[in-house]
Amino acid sequence: METPYEPSWDDLRVLLALHRHGSFLAAGRALGMSTSSTARRIEALEKALGRPLVHRSSAGTSVEPDALELIDLAEQFEFGLQAVRRDEGDSAASGSVRLSLSEGFIAPVTRVLSDLRRTHPALLFEIVSETRMADLSKREADIGIRLARSTSPVLIEREVGRIQLALYAARSYVERRVRDGRIKRDDMGRHDFLGFETHLNKMPQAQWLTEQGAKRFVFRSNSYFALREAAEQGQGIIVMAAGTVTPGSELIQLETEARLPTVPLFLAYHRELRSVKRVRLVLGALEPLMRAATA
Question: Is residue 210 located within the same domain as residue 235?
Answer without folding.
Answer: yes
